[in-house]
Design brief:
heterodimer, A: alpha+beta, Rossmann fold, 3 domains, 6-stranded mixed beta sheet, 35 strands, B: alpha+beta, 5-stranded antiparallel beta sheet, about 30% helix, globular
């Protein structure tokens, strides 16, 4: 059901992504075919300053911009630094401690020093209301308004700045939450109120409460931040559309961001995944795996049929002791292997890599900023894969001798290997770890990675992607334009997107399709209102329908796409067949004769936005090679003299053959013997990977 | 082997390339984890998907553990070797064929309750037997009295349920329809069980495929050699941890409930540390008994305690216990001879682990916590027929107790026992959606944590009401209901949990002692789980922290005064410092006498 039409594009689109270390800007002026990029250091004390620094560097006048998409770590920072609002919690009688008790699990099974998540709302600030619904929505005990009014007074006296409300079974019928919300909002002006059904209408009270509390906890500061951005943009002459990036890979209006700040939590890494899907689509390669490598971790995500994979929940602060958030997020598998990951020798003399990272401060030894421990980047420098003289376009020369010395002194003695052998080994371990992550999003989900192209991004993606592709026998690799700015670029390519869920538990055999149609219609109407707010034209809108299904008796469900036609005609046969097929694909077995049951209905409302189109390359330099240098590739004892190309000088249709390296401002692509390179009309490097 | 690893290997004095070694070190646990993920996502009963009562593993052809998932139930730690070695002894290594699937739960070797069904497959690489892929999982029912958590109320293995002794349910890829029908006909929820069997088998097949992919890639000889190296390294790490413990003989004892009206079981442990070696001697524990289901054949108590003390966050393989000697003589409650019924086989283990740790309380003062609730949790179960859905139902949840105070911070509230890692309770909304009951309350139980400088965590109080007639599991929470979780270094004991029941029409709740109770619709059961013990003298607890506990409702003002010697001002908003000084002096004097 992709009805989205691309609207004619024209003016200047700006994306600004505030990350942990850098703030990135990419802007595209379609009418002039111009791409702007800028990078500045993130300013933690006043995050938005990075936006203006970048605008200034890029020379963009806000009055010229038609739209601005913004991604920011503001929400996640508040949660991780525990600097959120003083939050009160209102729940059904008997469930005051559900939030503190949680699921009682200890993922670190043998660790008796384990830590459970620390609640963001105190027990003293948790209030019970004597109301109750049954699982079918029947009112067992009506809500007493006077009781809620008393609670509102107590909350006012407590000085709480935010309130979360989560009643049992409110996903079936939110009437009590709505009523309580009205009273609280009326009696507590200036206090931020979040109601669980406004965020997620799905069963499982602990996870829903945790999500609602998180939303309330980060709500006041995040909405203040968004409001301030709006004001300041307006003051500086911006009159276009301002949109905020979400964890789901979609964008939303500032009004939505203010009520659903929890949707912003994980927006950082997802821009690149969206961009990978879009770049793949334009090149006619619809199945791709996005691979991003930064300083501390590598991230990967699978895209099938140009659609990104979405997970319906995750944990803020890690699974072992973090807070569950039941909200859609681009499904990303992350491993602790980044450019700054430290190589070390453990107590039994084994070579280990990470999870400790030197990050950007002090950084790898070769950065000469005080780092003393050898890292993945140092290994790349020692092997000549990253050019010591040409790093960041020569702006920041790297100290190869220091990196070599670090490896020699810290690692070589216990391993009995030469410096280049150790450096080579560090990279092999890093590659194997990252390959496990790529397997995590593909093989473990029932996909064969050989059917996908690998898209590399981040500063660390292009140097390692070919080795990973060889490890997994992936035949094709794409190095997109601006790989080091890819996350911001992805924000320019994101649709407006809103996801809705409704628990609707019943056997497939008992489906009342009129009822299901009515629920979908209601979700679609809510979605339509959100798209109105984001100013999406009618013809750019589309809706996708899903059902969470399982065999009767199972607990975990699979999210199965269904069509409007199937819902209208009650086509249970087609739905069942699709479920069996997906189950078989994902888990290698299916039980076609077993009855199915529905858990949740899901709907995604999407508003297509004008997409930027990269101009065809004009450059057609006959001489793109800028030199050559010896690089250790397959053999750690013998370097190969490799040509070095400058990416900006590569013209469309140009073909090269590995071994070689291609350098650009923020990254270096390392190619092995036999790799065949073609430059696409729009500048992407397409590699046919040599078989190992 | 690629050119690069060859040249690296050449220069390595041990002959094994450290890089390949590290790559495989990461790859092997990834296989058992993927098997676990697959099983959990496709299983049919709560014991697997919520409670995660299962383990997935690869074992070598000697029955040694190549890798096992970490996450769910810890008392399955490294316990599959005995099953595989028994299978090898029965069939001989030549007696297996590709496509065979073997099923086993027999207590003479498996040593656990019959619900824990092992499914395993031999793994062949180029027609050569190289390993076994194994999945043990808790079935919701295996006949007899086994519905739910295990055969509570049984008196021998035959009344407990169906016994399966190394049976090939598939031979050379062909399912044995007769055996499978026999199993189906003798268990209560055959559809769920066959679904779980399918999931277990699929997880085994996945393990086979992944392991063979590694062998294809790195060569069989290399992988098998690496596995042995990994065993040795893991053992070396554990030895290093033990070497840091002062040499000596450490002893401690505790008790576990016997059957109602009988003597308690004694848990006596003697641990000897000598250099890098440790011996855990459980000979002093009670003998097996006919009248209690606590019998088992397991090293799990010793293994869990040892693993936590040595390398808690490292992956599991055979080397993890290479430097540990466990002594349990035949006929001991944890080395029970067949036939001995084992319905509650795991229930003594949390106390065994707690007691072994306690033995080290003086030697490792900065590490050892006070006792935790010591039980596998309040085992809530309700089964019956749901007239609305016209189907049988089983509702289950585990409600855990508190953990002991630690040398540097309070014990965690309501957390799964030492034997249950990533085990989870069942959400209220899940239970109410699927089964005819209503949860009236799931709350922390105030004042249940033992007082201490670092307070014991609180137990929970969960109240459930049935909406139809049904059979309840309503016994006391676990098997330490007579012996409170102890405090350490002056900390007080946690409060003991118990279970209350109220039949419809009754005014008050009564103590419920029998594990299986039939209850009419509208019966109400309250499960209270024990709080953890306190660590250090409560008189040393910062009065502001006591005030905080009172404000949060974890500790009452009375307890604050009586146990902690902290007196609050009348409005409860601040500590009355002079009164607190006086009260603490008074308590100190009382304590000194």
């Amino acid at each position: 059901m992709m009805l989205a039409k691309k609207l004619p594009a024209g003016g200047l689109s700006v994306a600004v992504d505030i990350g942990g270390t850098f703030t990135d800007l990419v802007a595209f002026d379609e009418s002039k075919g111009r791409v702007f990029q800028a990078k500045s250091l993130t300013t933690p004390n006043e995050l938005s300053q990075g936006v203006w620094d970048c605008l200034k560097k890029a020379g963009i006048a806000l009055g010229d911009a038609e739209n601005i998409v913004h991604g920011s770590t503001v929400a996640i920072n508040i949660a991780i630094e525990e600097k959120g609002a003083k939050t009160a919690l209102v729940v059904t009688k008997g469930t005051r401690d559900v939030y503190k008790i949680g699921r009682q699990n200890r993922p670190e099974a043998y660790n008796f020093s384990f830590k459970r998540p620390v609640p963001l709302a105190s027990r003293a600030n948790t209030f019970e209301v004597d109301e109750r619904l049954s699982a079918s929505g029947e009112v067992l005990k009506p809500l007493s308004t006077s009781e809620v009014e008393d609670i509102a007074c107590a909350i006012r006296n407590s000085g709480a700045e935010a309130v979360a409300v989560c009643f049992l079974h409110s996903y079936v019928d939110p009437a009590h939450e709505i009523e309580a919300g009205k009273i609280l909002r009326r009696m507590l002006p200036g206090v931020y109120v979040s109601l669980s059904h406004e965020i997620v209408r799905e069963y499982r009270e602990y996870e829903r409460t945790s999500t609602t509390v998180m939303n309330a906890y980060i709500g006041p500061k995040t909405s203040e931040y968004v409001g301030r951005m709006q004001d300041r943009l307006g003051e500086d002459g911006f009159s276009g559309r301002f949109l905020i990036m979400q964890s789901s890979g979609g964008v939303m209006s500032p009004a939505q961001a203010k009520t659903l700040p929890v949707a912003m939590m994980e927006s950082g890494p997802v821009g690149g995944v969206i961009a990978a899907a879009e770049v793949g689509r334009r090149l006619g390669i619809k199945d791709v795996i996005a691979f991003d490598m930064g300083g501390t971790t590598a991230k990967t995500s699978l895209i099938q049929g140009s659609a990104v994979s979405i997970a319906q929940g995750y944990h803020i602060g890690g699974y072992a002791s973090g807070h569950p958030v039941m909200f859609p997020v681009v499904d990303i598998v992350e491993v602790g292997a980044g450019g700054g990951s430290i190589a070390w020798i453990d107590q039994v003399g084994a070579l280990k890599l990470g999870p400790q990272s030197a990050g950007s401060d002090p950084g790898p030894i070769s950065y000469c900023r005080g780092g003393t421990q050898p890292t993945v980047t140092d290994a790349n420098v020692v092997l000549g894969r990253i050019g010591a003289k040409s790093f960041l376009g020569g702006e920041m020369p790297l100290d190869e001798a220091a990196a070599r010395k670090g490896i020699l002194e810290r690692l070589c003695p216990s391993l009995g290997l030469s410096v280049t052998e150790v450096a080579h080994g560090i990279l092999k371990i890093a590659i194997a770890k990252m390959a496990l992550a790529v397997r995590g999003v593909s093989v473990q989900r029932g996909f064969d990675p050989r059917d996908f192209a690998l898209v590399a991004m981040g500063g660390g993606g292009p140097p390692h992607v070919l080795a990973i592709a060889r490890d997994l026998n992936i035949p094709k690799v794409i190095i997109p334009n601006l790989p080091a700015h890819f996350s911001a670029l992805g924000m320019l390519m994101s649709d407006v997107r809103h996801d809705f869920v409704r628990t609707h538990y019943r056997p497939l055999a008992d489906f009342d399709y009129a009822e299901i149609q009515a629920i979908f219609a209601e979700l679609a109407a809510t979605g339509g209102a959100a798209l109105d707010e984001a100013g999406v034209e009618l013809e750019a809108r589309s809706v996708e329908y899903f059902m969470d299904l399982r065999y009767v008796g199972q607990e975990f469900h699979l999210q199965i796409p269904v069509t409007a036609d199937e819902i209208l005609h009650g086509n249970s046969v087609a739905i069942r067949e699709r479920f069996n097929h997906v189950h078989e694909h994902r888990f290698d077995h299916a039980a076609p004769d077993e009855p199915l049951e529905l858990i949740n209905l899901r709907l995604t409302a999407r508003g297509g936005r004008p997409k930027i189109n990269f101009p065809k390359l004009a450059a057609n330099a006959t001489q793109a090679q800028t030199g050559s240098r010896p690089i250790y590739l397959d053999d750690p004892s013998r370097p190969v003299e490799c040509p070095v190309y400058r990416r900006e000088l590569l013209g469309p249709g140009m073909r090269l053959r590995g071994p070689c390296v291609i350098e650009e401002f923020g990254s270096t692509t390392v190619l092995f013997e036999g790799d065949l390179i073609t430059i696409a009309d729009t500048g992407e490097i397409i590699v046919e990977v040599a078989r190992s | 082997m690629t050119a690069e690893s060859k040249s690296a290997a050449k220069l390595n004095p041990t002959g094994l390339d450290p890089v390949t070694l590290e790559v495989l070190r990461n790859a092997l646990p990834a296989i058992s984890d993927e098997m676990s993920y697959d099983l959990q996502r496709t299983s049919y009963n709560m014991m697997i998907y919520e409670i995660r009562d299962y383990c997935t593993a690869l074992l070598d052809t000697n029955g040694a553990l190549i890798s096992q998932n970490i996450g769910g139930v810890s008392h399955f730690v490294a316990d599959l070797g005995v099953v595989i070695r028994d299978g090898i002894a029965r069939y001989g290594l030549d007696g297996f064929s590709p496509g065979d699937v073997i099923m086993h739960n027999h207590q003479a070797t498996a040593g656990q309750h019959l619900n824990n069904v092992v499914i395993y497959t031999p793994v062949y690489h180029e027609n050569c037997l190289v390993a076994f892929a194994v999945v043990r999982a808790h079935w919701a029912d295996v006949g007899g009295l086994s519905t739910g958590f295990g055969g509570t109320g049984a008196y021998d293995p035959w009344s407990e349920g169906l016994q399966v002794d190394q049976l090939k349910i598939y031979e050379k890829g062909e399912p044995d329809a007769k055996i499978l029908k026999m199993i189906r006909d003798n268990i209560r929820y055959p559809d769920a069980a066959m679904g779980d069997l399918r999931s277990q088998l699929a997880a085994c097949r996945l393990g086979e495929r992944r392991f063979c992919e590694l062998l294809d890639r790195y060569s069989r000889a290399t992988v098998l050699e690496v596995i042995n190296t990994i065993y040795a390294e893991t053992e070396a790490k554990c030895r290093a941890a033990v070497a840091d413990i002062p040499d000596g003989v450490y002893e401690a004892e505790a008790f576990v409930d016997g059957a109602r009206g009988t003597m308690p079981f004694e848990i006596k442990v003697k641990v000897t540390v000598s250099g890098s070696e440790m011996e855990i001697d459980l000979s002093g524990c009670s003998s097996q008994r006919d009248n209690a289901g606590l019998n088992s054949r397991t090293y799990a108590g010793a293994y869990i305690a040892y693993k936590a003390l040595t390398a808690p966050l490292e992956p599991l393989n055979e080397g993890a216990f290479g430097a540990l000697k466990v002594v349990i003589p035949e006929g001991n409650m944890m080395m029970a001879r067949f036939p001995a019924f084992m319905a509650s086989w795991g229930s003594a283990l949390p106390t065994v682990v707690d007691t072994i740790w306690r033995a080290f309380a003086e030697a490792l003062p900065d590490l050892i916590p006070a006792a935790h609730s010591g039980s596998l949790g309040a085992p809530f179960a309700l089964s019956g027929h749901d007239p609305a859905r016209k189907a049988g139902f089983v509702a289950q949840s585990i409600e855990a107790g508190g953990w002991g105070g630690r040398p540097d911070r309070d014990g965690e509230d309501a957390s799964m026992s030492v034997c249950q890692g990533d085990v989870r309770n069942t959400p209220i909304e899940t239970m109410e959606l699927k089964t005819p009951l209503i949860v009236l309350e799931r709350a922390l139980w105030s004042d249940s944590g033992g007082a201490g400088k670092f307070r014991g965590g609180l137990g929970v109080q969960t109240t459930i009401k049935s909406l139809v007639d049904g059979r309840w599991n309503a016994g006391p929470p676990g098997h330490r209901s007579g012996y409170a979780p102890w405090g350490l270094r002056g900390g007080k004991a946690g409060v003991l949990g118990y279970t209350l029941i109220r039949a419809p029409g009754q005014d008050t709740h009564e103590l419920s002692l029998s594990p299986r109770v039939f209850g009419q619709a509208e019966t109400e059961v309250v499960y209270r789980t024990s709080g953890g013990g306190g660590w250090g003298s409560p008189l040393e607890r910062d009065p502001e922290r006591v005030l905080h506990d009172v404000r949060e409702g974890y500790v009452s003002a009375e307890k604050a005064r009586d146990d902690y010697g902290v007196v609050l001002r009348a409005d409860g908003t601040a500590v009355d410092s002079p009164a607190t000084l006086a009260r603490r002096a008074e308590l100190a004097r009382e304590g000194a006498h």
